[in-house]
Amino acid sequence: MWELISAGGWLMLPIVLSSVVALAIVFERLWALRSSRVAPANLLGQVWRWIKDGQLDATRLKALRADSPLGEILAAGLANTRHGREIMKESIQEAATKVIHELERYLNTLGTIAAITPLLGLLGTVIGMIDVFTAVMVQGTGNTAVLAGGISKALITTAAGLTVAIPALFFHRFFMRRVDELVVAMEQEATKLVEVVQGSRDAEPNGNDVAADPAIRQAAKTAQGN
Global pTM? Predict the structure, then answer.
């Protein structure tokens, strides 16, 4: 491996560094963008149990906000229920903007790596071919070792750049799609929260087709009036 890096010339250094950064981002985002961490399946049901039992206080709101990105969005809405539907939705949108920014962290860097590493490889190719033609001009075509060295540098840097760029591009697209899916899921949960709290929805916000609990509706009206 070291021989390949040395043969590729100095341009192999930024390519190798880019590969290390890309690998770190991939592992970090795979951990950070888990559905169970971003949008826990039963979180909204738990919130409604707190409301039903009269346990939704400032302490639980703080814990909800720190629990997950979805919890942060729901807590922003719940903290403004008494101000009406529009203020509640605006609070949720503001929190969602911050959450989405956090979900997309490092993805621009990963996309940049996917874009620049092939260019670095191409630059290495150009430099290698310049070395080849310079050797031809100085020594003629008889010294095959010099010619092979320049061609080898060109091929190694190109291969290295593509080797880094292809997985980086794949994971960049993969994570962008994952963020979109998570945003849609959180948007649906937040919409259920607003509709039930403001009295526009009769079904429980847990995904089940059952009638709403009257105690939940009463708690929602109480939260709206406070």
Answer: 0.77
